[in-house]
Design a protein that fits this description.
Blueprint (H helix, E strand, L loop, with lengths): L1 E7 L20 H12 L9 E8 L7 H14 L10 E6 L6 H8 L5 E7 L3 H6 L8 H11 L5 E7 L6 H13 L4 E6 L7 H13 L21 H17 L3 E4 L2 E3 L6 H7 L4 E4 L4 E3 L3 E5 L3 H9 L5 E6 L2 H12 L6 E2 L5 H16 L3 E4 L2 E4 L1 H4 L2 H8 L3
Parallel strand pairs: 1-2, 1-9, 2-3, 3-4, 4-5, 5-6
Antiparallel strand pairs: 6-8, 7-8, 10-11, 11-12, 13-15, 14-15
Length: 392
């Protein structure tokens, strides 16, 4: 069993915070779809029943319906879609302003049964800060259009920790999201990731403000404080998120993810539960249970390789021994169920429990039915707990 991920790197404009591989070269979309279809033919040695299919990006809704139809036609030749419909998921990420009535209706004629949208915030000023191209009012419009088209599984992303954002403003975003009655919510704290436009912008501003000419000390890196927030406020925002969504009947099944009963993201859960997955497209990753590989993160190089019958894989690494153990710590502990200790070797089990003892004693971890999991208190210091359990 495996999940299939297809990376669609095209964006009409690049969001300031995004660190995923993307491009604005829309003129290459058809050439890219043709290459994806050709890469699919390379998978004859990796055939496995699919548990999920996920079109991510970038912005997959930047593909035309004709291009999506072509892609699904070729997927069906390699992985009969009838085998993954029903209980399984077929997800496409969409930007809210791409979801016109015509687009939603066309999506309903494809095998898609789940749509994920990046709402991020319902404040237009903060959307402009992120360089998002949709407006706050377009999110509920998109949800309504998808409902009318028959899509019964919708997920939206939210973001908190904006400069000068108050707890009340964040609660307004949560309440607005809840009013949409979607099946799934993901929420992330705004981060300054090196290489993103936001990082470069903030770095430039910090360099100017810390210039020796102005009497400051020049620094070469950024942290959360550069966004004007505080750890305590972010903690309160996260607490409010958990409380509000739990009261509304959502299950907090992963650190950043909440779902109504029966609507967990099955594709993302495969990443957290050590299920193999196949990645197609520029910068996509694959994992077969023993080895992780990734395609070249360059659109033109990806196209050149595939069109010439060459593998687009740039590199790979074996996931075994302590590397595998560390991977399980950093991924499984993100989930509500936690780390299944019975999947560890005796050596890894003993090492894990030796280092976990003090966190069990102080209430940051809990042990139940051979599963080691973070408590609610533990979630707030999850990075510290995980680093202490890892073998460096």
């Amino acid at each position: 069993m495996a999940g299939l991920y297809i990376h669609i790197p095209f964006c009409k404009s690049r969001c300031s915070y995004c660190g995923f591989y993307s491009t604005t070269h829309a003129e290459l979309r058809q050439q890219y779809v043709d290459a994806l279809c050709k890469e699919l033919t390379f998978l004859t040695s990796h055939l496995s029943p699919l548990t999920s299919l996920y079109l991510g990006g970038g912005t997959p809704s930047q593909l035309t319906i004709a291009q999506l139809e072509q892609l699904f036609l070729y997927i069906n030749k390699v992985y009969p879609l009838s085998s993954i419909q029903g209980e399984s998921e077929i997800t496409i990420e969409c930007n809210p302003d791409d979801v016109t009535e015509e687009y939603a209706a066309a999506l309903s004629q494809l095998p898609v049964n789940r749509v994920s949208m990046g709402a991020q915030t319902f404040d237009d000023q903060r959307l402009r800060f992120l360089n998002r191209r949709h407006t706050a009012s377009q999110v509920p419009q998109a949800v309504e259009r998808l409902r009318q088209a028959g899509i019964r599984n919708i997920s939206i992303d939210l973001m908190y920790g904006f400069p000068d954002e108050t707890l009340e403003q964040w609660e307004h975003d949560i309440n607005t999201a809840l009013s949409l009655d979607v099946e799934h919510l993901s929420a992330y704290c705004l981060m300054l990731e090196e290489g993103t436009p936001l990082y470069e912008q903030m770095m430039k501003e910090k360099t100017l403000s810390n210039s020796p000419c102005l009497g400051g000390e020049l620094k070469s890196s950024l942290d959360r404080e550069d966004l004007g927030g505080s750890e305590e406020l972010e903690r309160q925002m996260y607490e409010r998120l958990i409380d509000k969504l739990s009261e509304a009947g959502y299950e907090h099944y992963e650190i950043s993810n909440f779902a109504k009963p029966g609507f967990r993201s099955r594709h993302n859960s495969s990443y957290w539960n050590d299920v193999p997955y196949i990645g197609l497209g520029a910068a996509a990753h694959s994992y077969d249970g023993h080895c992780r590989s990734w395609n070249v993160a360059d659109l033109k190089e990806y196209l050149r390789r595939v069109e010439n019958g060459l593998s687009p894989v740039e590199d790979s690494e074996l996931i075994e021994g302590w590397t595998r153990y560390n991977d399980r710590i950093t991924v499984a502990l993100r989930t509500r169920e936690g780390l299944d200790l019975t999947t560890l070797t005796d050596e890894h089990h003993d090492y894990c429990m030796k280092n976990a003892r003090r966190f069990l004693n102080n209430g940051l971890l809990i042990l139940s039915d051979h599963h080691l999991a973070l408590t609610r208190r533990g979630i707030f210091v999850s990075d510290m707990v995980m680093s202490e359990l890892m073998k460096v």
